[in-house]
Amino acid sequence: MSVIAIVGGGIGGIVAAFTLKKAHPKHDVIVIEASPNLGGLLGVSHEIGSLSFDIGTHIPAETMIDELDEWLFGALYENDAWQKITRINGGNYYDGQLDENHHNILSRSTYDDLDDNVKLPEKEVNCVDDYRFRFGKYLTNHVFLPSLEKFIPCEAEKLEPEVQRYFALDRLSQHGGSASPNTRLADSRIHPQGKKIPTAFYTSNGKGVSDWIALLKRQLDQLGVKFLHGKKTVGFEVDNHKIKKLIFDNGSTFICNQVIWSAPIETLLPLVSHQSSEKFSSYYQRTKIKLFHFVFDTPYLTPCHYVNCFDTHVDPYRVTLYENFAGRIDKKKLYRCTVEVIGERAQNPSLNEAEIFRQLVEMRIVSADTKVIGSHETQVLNGFPIKRVGALSNARKLCDEITDTFNNIHLVGSAEPSTFFSNDVMIRTFNSLKTKIEEEKIT
Questions:
Q1: What is the reported pLDDT for 271?
Q2: Would the pTM count as exceeding 0.90?
Q3: For a FRET experiment, which of 134, 245, 313, 375 has its CA 20 to 30 Å from that of 319?
Q4: Contacts of 37 (CB under 8 A, 6+ apart)
Q5: What would the pLDDT profile of 253-296 be if each residue is shown by its tens digit?
Q6: Topology of domain 108-187, CATH
């Protein structure tokens, strides 16, 4: 019997396990995860009383792939414990104003005339180059860079342009009387007309996204997928370019025929040459995130599901308003909120719950007479990826080195360059493995 080892039990590993077990029901499919939980940050929650708090805004949404969505969400469509959200209502706080209409900074008609005809340089483009080319100097210097620098602990000139979208700073929202479709500024905007918006899901019973991960785990159990927790893969035993065994950090091994690597790309570093590992590490790091969880006694002042905070005069990056997602009026009148603070501000020892609450009042998200019924403060050490210029090209070289060295390893999801958001991970993992199965590269 063939054994397929999936390294990494995040959402990519979960989708990989479903895809492979469905295609090869007689194979042993084993998910190997270093932590006690599946799902990565999606599978972790904090409890205050009977209420759950996610580790940031992580809302599962349809992939628009029928076969995959039926497995991921089939049990939720008819379940009243899950709210079906046809459009997530994100807002943003910028320049002292709460905009409840869009999660990106509001565009203005005057911005359409600011194109300075900046050309792209003939070199590897950095974040500032990309901003100036797409938006011109004024928007770059006065709108985007100050907001980005709030979250990033290094100069924007050193960053890959891709970093912009991690913080919703890659475009402006739409405005009335917008410019010609031929302008760069118009090209950067999302035009939802005629597009089907994926349905998103959230629990309506005070629980969190970890309940969805637990459901997927039960569905994998029913398929016969197996799990191995507490095992960190640090090396391989190889014969003729084929991985025969995984080597774990405690010295134990695991025999396998195929390896699906879905763990984050930096976990590949122990498996490549020291030179490649050292070079890649110099281009890549993660932000620290401080989380403030609150339980309030009164409703929020805004209907937004979440609010991105681009204003540099306040500390939050994002505020998640759970009861707006849940679509319920809590009989106990308890309203959950999580505030994320990113980067150097997250390491400020004087930033406490009282100051964050004051800022929520200033942003008009909650009222001054709101009472805090419960609260909790915690940290995430491996937050958003900070990619310096050269990170993506070196990541591709790293992946090529791995796949050229071992002919039975397949890199999917978070192990692929430029794959970060959970929906991208699910879609690309499923499509990549389906193609490999059809081409008989995984048999």
A1: 82
A2: yes
A3: 134
A4: 9, 43, 44, 210, 213
A5: 999 999 999 999 888 888 877 777 888 888 888 899 999 999 99
A6: protoporphyrinogen ix oxidase, domain 3 (1.10.3110)
Q: What is the mean pLDDT of the chain?
A: 90
Q: Do the beta carbons of residue 147 and residue 155 sit within 8 Å?
A: no
Helices (H), 78-180: 127-139, 145-151, 163-166
Residues 443 and 439: their CA atoms lie apart, in Å, by: 9
> Given this model, what pLDDT does residue 280 score?
80
Domain 85-90+288-383 has CATH 2.40.50.100: no
Structural contact between residues 57 and 66, judged by C-beta atoms closer than 8 angstroms: no
Which tokens hold the place of 361?
A: 């009042």
CATH number for the region 3-41+205-280+388-438 comes to 3.50.50.60
Q: Which helix (H) or strand (E) holds 274?
A: helix 274-281
- Determine contact, residues 178/107, Cβ cutoff 8 Å: yes
Beta bridge partners of 47: 52
pLDDT, mean of residues 398-424: 93
What's the Rg (C-alpha) of the chain? 23
Please state, in angstroms and as integers, the Cα–Cα distance from residue 214 to each residue in 65, 75, 236, following that order: 22, 12, 30
Could you tell me if 337 and 300 are in contact, meaning their C-beta atoms sit under 8 angstroms apart? yes
* Cβ(312)–Cβ(146) below 8 Å: yes
User: Which DSSP category does 144 fall into?
Assistant: I
